[in-house]
Amino acid sequence: MAYVAVKGGERAIDAAHAWREAARRGDPAVPALSTAQIAGQLGRAVERVMAEASLHDPVLAALAIRQAEGDLIEAAFLLRAFRTTLPRFGAALPLETGRMAVRRRVSAIFKDVPGGQILGPTTDYTHRLLDFTLLDDAPPPAAPRASDPVEAMPRVAELLAAEGLLRPEPASEVTPFDLTREALAHPAPRDARLQGLARGDEGFLLGMGYSTQRGYGGSHPFAGEIRMGAVSVELVPDELGFPIDIGEVVLTECQMVNQFHGGKTEPACFTAGYGLAFGQADRRAMAMALLDRAMQAEELGEAVTAPAQNPEFVLAHADNIEATGFVEHLKLPHYVDFQSEAEAVRRLRAAALAKAAE
Amino acid sequence: MRGYNFAYLDEQTKRMIRRAILKAVAIPGHQVPFGGREMPLPYGWGTGGIQVTAAILGPQDVLKVIDQGADDTTNAVSIRRFFARVAGIATTTRTTEASVIQTRHRIPETKLRADQILVYQVPQPEPLYRLEPSRVAARRLHALAEYGAMHVRLYEDIARLGAVAISYDYPVLVNRRYITSPSPIPAFDNPKLHRMAALQLFGAGREKRIYAIPPYTEVRSLDFEDHPFRPHRADGACALCGARDSYLDEVLTDDRGGRMFVCSDTDYCAGRAA
Amino acid sequence: MSAVPDLPGFPDPVTDAQAAFRAILWAQSHPGAIVAPAPTLAVPPPLPIAAGALLLTLADADTGLWLDPIFAPARAWLRFHTGAPEVPLSRAGFVLAAGLPALDTIGLGSDEAPQDGASLILPVAALGEGTRWRLSGPGLAASTDFAAALPEGFAAFWAANHALFPRGVDVFLCAGPRLAALPRSAALEVA
């Protein structure tokens, strides 16, 4: 009969996990965090974890954050490893962000736009002063409610396109690439690139997007529109043949508008970079839009000179689950390889010293 | 395990991996892309090997898992437990008892048989990546069998240092066609790749590649006629079993330069010492 | 939804597919070796049992299938149990042929993606008897004889295919429940 060896490694792992569990709970005299508290009060963290896990489920994301002690990359990893075991029932219809129930909408390229500018629940103009009243859990002041219902809000990009100023993006009926099911091959089409960005590490997207503003593949961006709000998700079940509403998700959508000098076959116009993220996530959606535009460089006939313009580079390094695994794997035992290196270095040194002695 | 399929992966994912394995066997040494899945272990910790193992494993199999040649290293323990938990299969530490052996960084000293499969965990399947970091460009080089840059790199070592300065993950030419990474095994193990009776499967989860070396396939470590490939090991005998033919780990015993050497393959060592 | 065919598929899809896969993997790793992936599987005639077992094991909604019209009676069964869509011959990952197709009509992969070359499932009159062939290449310790009643022109077909390496097709010969593989890496000549 085969057997499992019980040696030091096994006992050490069990002990380590038990210690970890005890440490995670913290002081038992302090009440435990509930997932409802995390989902309700740490919304930005929950949204980031859902984006990087490619799974919209605030409760499970909150659970993952709690289990990971607030390590958001670890939480996204937990959620992704769960996601991969889920069966697929079908694909939703494309979301209609033009029909979003808008909570926030700003355009930097017009003083006013149809539907107006709506700041929404933003921190943009707060003074970053620690609010010590939160130490006492003081109830917040009541937020005023708008008296007028929100008007219809056409997307700003569509207003530009109507004038012919924005490079048209042809509609496609092709089923989008799914990099959770297939290995990405380069040159990656835009749908695959956008999917890779949508689940990319927020810090990486931010840094790479920032690099384009500092001249590494500059694309002269303007924030055409940032809108945030709830959008219906619709699905056409096979047995019904017509769309049904299966719920809604809150999204932030960003359209960057960038200068384009025109090519051999087309006159100058503006081009768009696109960003989309779960929840209220201006930073993420804007960085994504900068990178989406930068990665169109080759297709637009622009010189590809900067890392942000190289889709293979960006997409291979944007995934923080992959990156953290490979960086951290260096702490696994490597003593066999190190031994072979040490022997090689000793041989080379001995040979060099013998030669020097001649 | 309740709530999960046999061996964790769903059947559609297993089929996708099985198709990739069969093509990999048909094109020895060629890296076949596959739709690698997120596994409940981190990338870089054997997710590629685990997916390959999960796709081939059946209830009759007996699994051995080694890391650095040892069955009791923490990651080997973790992976062995994973399969015992999600597949309920028998595990062993004996090389001769195993039908499937998953390994990181070593090939067992005991000669493997035709009825065994060796699954390697591969961190970096692209052997040309230090010369050509773009995988798009590297794929083109493989397509053209344009391997001059690799030979130049090895020759530069010889010219500068008198020997090739690669001591692990030493590149090989499989079936006279593809330059292939043998995974980060010490170059000492490279001769075992050549005409091995067991099927060798390589899984790289993060890079989403699978490749294979079929049984009895010619595998040549890259070298030059005037500088033939030479496998190295620490010059000594195992302090536990006295072996002079096995790969040795160096263990520091004090802070005054004291050291001993012991077999890296713990099963081989235990079998000899018994 | 496809109509439910009369015959079931694998009685135990998880275990049976795994066992069949290991038999096919053995065959692919040892060119010419004869295996029986699922000898008791009930398949609609005239489909060879081994061909049915291979497709149930490996084909699904993600793999295009091309069927020779002679296998039309098996169409509903294959569709229901694999979900594999039927596609034109040149785009099929699995080609279930009745006779030997012209090599240039099947997917052969590219130099960069040779794995895209098709898997050709070829029913033959007999495996283990018939003309003796000599095989060599990866998977074989030494050149090995194997006997099979291969279709007319197979030697030339295979020589052309093998010469394309690493591009090419991989062939699975099926006779009733028995199967032997010829991966493109194998060299074949009359013994």
Short key terms for the protein model shown above:
heterotrimer; A: 358 residues; alpha+beta; 2 domains; 4-stranded antiparallel β-sheet; 12 helices; 4 strands; disordered N terminus; B: 274 residues; alpha/beta; 7-stranded mixed β-sheet; 3-stranded antiparallel β-sheet; 7 helices; 12 strands; 28% helix; globular
Please, could you describe this protein's structure?
The complex is a heterotrimer of chains A (358), B (274) and C (191). Chain A has 358 residues and is of the alpha+beta class. Chain A folds into 2 domains: 10-83, no CATH class; 97-120 and 149-169 and 179-323, no CATH class. Chain A has helices at residues 8-25, 35-41, 43-53, 58-67, 72-83, 156-162, 190-198, 202-213, 282-294, 311-317, 320-328, 335-357, and strands at 101-106, 221-235, 244-260, 269-278. A 4-stranded antiparallel beta sheet of chain A has the order 1-2-3-4. In chain A, helix 8 (202-213) packs across helix 9 (282-294). The longest helix of chain A is centred in the C-terminal third of the chain and has 23 residues, at 335-357. The N and C termini of chain A lie far apart (61 Å). Chain B is an alpha/beta fold. Helices cover 28% and strands 18% of the residues of chain B. Chain B has helices spanning 11-26, 47-56, 74-87, 135-144, 148-161, 190-193, 266-273, and strands spanning 32-33, 62-67, 90-91, 100-104, 117-121, 172-174, 178-180, 199-204, 209-213, 219-221, 248-252, 259-263. In chain B, the strands form 3 sheets. Chain B has a 7-stranded mixed beta sheet. In chain B, strands 7-6-10 form a 3-stranded antiparallel beta sheet. In chain B, strands 11-12 form a two-stranded antiparallel ribbon. In chain B, strand 8 (199-204) and strand 9 form a beta hairpin. The radius of gyration of chain B is 19 Å and the shape is globular. The two termini of chain B are 36 Å apart. Chain C has 191 residues and is an alpha/beta fold. Helices cover 24% and strands 21% of the residues of chain C. Chain C has one domain: Rossmann fold (3-Layer(aba) Sandwich), CATH 3.40.50. In chain C, the strands form 2 sheets. Chain C has a 5-stranded mixed beta sheet. A 3-stranded antiparallel beta sheet of chain C has the order 5-4-8, with helices on one face.
